[in-house]
Amino acid sequence: DEVALGEEVSLVAGGRLTWASADVGRLEDPNTGGVSSLEDDWLSAVGSLRVVWSPVDEARIFGGVSQAFRAPNLSDLSRLDSARSNELEVPSPGLDPEDFLSLEVGGKVRWEGLALHAAYHYTFMDDVIIRQPTGVMLGSEFEVAKRNGGDGHIQGVDLSVSYDLDSNWSAFGT
């Protein structure tokens, strides 16, 4: 939803409720050769909030915060296959979703066919699913499994420019 906080300022809010599930009917344990199954599900509520200031019709300055999550996929949970040289990736039941929190500030200007956009973003990452050695050797291969072992951040700058050459053609770059 977008709510006007005045003539030049608005608040844009959004949210999403996500439910994801996995059902693996047959799962082989590489250590015992036994067969099992796996069922799991994840529920997440995420949101975003952005303030937009439009001092003139041709310009906008914005800042916001957004959340995201990624549920483990079937490969994360059940893969039993060579991963890289001398590595065997084994099933990894019980994984948690990855969580992200992003902060962003930027601006947009459009004037006589010219459009400019610049933004800076910083994303905090929590419980990122990564491949880690287990310390077990299976034949000549090192066993690796997925774990919620990664925390960190990503930051970046987005820049773009476009120019309308005429009503049918434009040039742009990012």
Plain-language structure description:
The chain is an all-beta fold. Helices cover 3% and strands 75% of the residues. The protein has 1 helix and 10 strands. Strands 1, 2, 3, 4, 5, 6, 7, 8, 9 and 10 form a 10-stranded mixed sheet that branches. Strand 1 (2-4) and strand 2 form a beta hairpin. The protein is elongated, with a radius of gyration of 23 Å.
Keywords:
mainly beta
Write the topology of this structure.
Layout (H helix, E strand, L loop, with lengths): L1 E3 L4 E20 L6 E22 L2 E12 L3 H5 L2 E2 L4 E4 L7 E14 L2 E25 L2 E24 L5 E4 L1
Parallel strand pairs: 6-9
Antiparallel strand pairs: 1-2, 2-3, 3-4, 4-7, 5-6, 7-8, 8-9, 9-10
Sheet/helix structural class: mainly beta
Specify the overall morphology: elongated
What is the average of the pLDDT values? Answer: 93
Uncertain stretches of 5 or more adjacent residues: none
From the alpha-carbon coordinates, what is the Rg to the nearest angstrom? 23 Å
Provide a concise account of the structure shown.
The protein is built from one helix and ten strands; from the N terminus they run ββββαββββββ. The chain has one helix spanning 74-78, and strands spanning 2-4, 9-28, 35-56, 59-70, 81-82, 87-90, 98-111, 114-138, 141-164, 170-173.
